[in-house]
Amino acid sequence: MLAISVKTETGPGRSRPTAAELAGLLRRIGADDDHFVVAERLPDETHVYVQTWRDGAGPFRVEYRDGAPERHFATETEDVERVVEVFVDWAHGGESWRTALDWRPADLYSTPALDPETRKAAEEQARKDIRSGFWDVHEVAQGVCDSFDPKDTEISLDDARRIVAGLWERRLAEQAEWPEVTDPDRVAQAFAALAAKGLTARMNFSCCSGCALGEIAAERAEGDRGFVFFHYQDTEAAAEGHGLAVRYGAYAEPGEDDASAEARTAVGRTAVAALTAAGLPVQWDGDPDRVIDVSPLDWRKRLPTGA
Predict the structure, then answer these.
(1) Would you call 74 exposed, middle or buried from its count of C-beta atoms within 10 A (0-12, 13-18, 19+)?
(2) Could you tell me which residues come within 8 angstroms of residue 40 by beta carbon, excluding any fewer than 6 positions away?
(3) CA 20 to 30 Å from 108, out of 62, 141, 208, 235?
(4) How many CB atoms lie within 10 A of CB 248?
């Protein structure tokens, strides 16, 4: 097995694959929703990785990074077996991969095909998703593409990745100066405590209240009496400085269509207690039909690791 972790566009990452498994992942990429492979060493080394991208039957864009942005190099090749050789040798800690391809300093951030207004709009979308702290770099790039109507303006995934890359680097530099424990860490602590108290606790769950309420029961663990969550729009509002709306409810008892007000109120009280115990400011008047407002809140959530 190779001492690396591997991430692809499809499914969860893989830890310590065999050389044959890694080769299989590389040979298949290019299809829709399966464009890239990223390999990182185990144990993790910051900003050290090798990755490749392919669209359809086009060439492989291969990149490696050895730390700082100026140590980021790229090339292209049509030869999938050469890509496999590079990845496997890199994973083994070899040196032949360094001369196997014509590496050049990578142009990471420029988007000459985009007009300034389109780039500006794309950057704002990327900043919004990066500030949330829940999306990895590939999800943020896809979100940038999806934010444009292709009938009006189309932005390629490659351009989106370039835009996101620079903003991601900047955010990493910013968070290095943050306190060890931030308000989102306290929110996560409270949600972990709520999960231990028999509640289905989900952060950044679904797109809106309607969808989340329709989906939360499918997340229910045996013995859960209620639920607590905040959705994507709540996260965005918190990241913009408006505080966090925490939503909650109780599961109906057998034979009931809806949970009672008393049951919902009890869940609300449990949620308020956990949030308060985590050191967060909470505003709630005890009405089970009103959300719990966590405010004021300094939303500085660290980016996903290994992304």
Answers:
(1) buried
(2) 4, 5, 6, 7, 48, 49, 306
(3) 235
(4) 26
Quote the strand ranges of the chain, DSSP E.
4-8, 14-15, 36-41, 48-53, 60-66, 72-77, 104-105, 199-202, 226-229, 244-250, 282-283, 292-294
For residues 259-276, one letter each, b for 16 or more C-beta atoms within 10 angstroms of the residue's C-beta and e for the rest, the string is beeebbbbbbebbbebbe
Residue 154 scores a pLDDT above 90: no
Q: How far apart are CA 62 and CA 47, in angstroms?
A: 16
Copy the structure tokens of residue 56. Answer: 């359809």
163-192 burial code (b ≥16 CB/10 A, e <16): bbbebbeebeeeeeeeeeebbbbbbebbbe
In the chain, the amino acid numbered 277 is A
- Residues 6 or more apart whose Cβ sits within 8 Å of residue 55: 30, 35, 157
Phi and psi at 227, nearest 5°, equal -145, 160
CA distances from 194 to 32, 190, 231, 241, 267 (A): 39, 6, 17, 24, 10
Run of H or E residues at 156: none
Give the amino acid at 2. L
Question: Nearest-5° angle of CA 285, CA 221, CA 290?
Answer: 15
Average pLDDT, the chain: 95
Name residue 154's amino acid.
Answer: E
Residues making up the chain, counted from first to last: 307
Token couple for 286: 């005890």
pTM of the model: 0.76
**What DSSP string runs through 205-237?**
-SSSHHHHHHHGGGGPPTT--EEEE--HHHHHH
In this prediction, what percent of the chain has a pLDDT beyond 90?
A: 88
What mean pLDDT comes out for the span 140-164?
93
pLDDT in tens, 106-119: 888 999 989 999 99
How many Å from the N-terminal Cα to the C-terminal Cα in the chain? 22
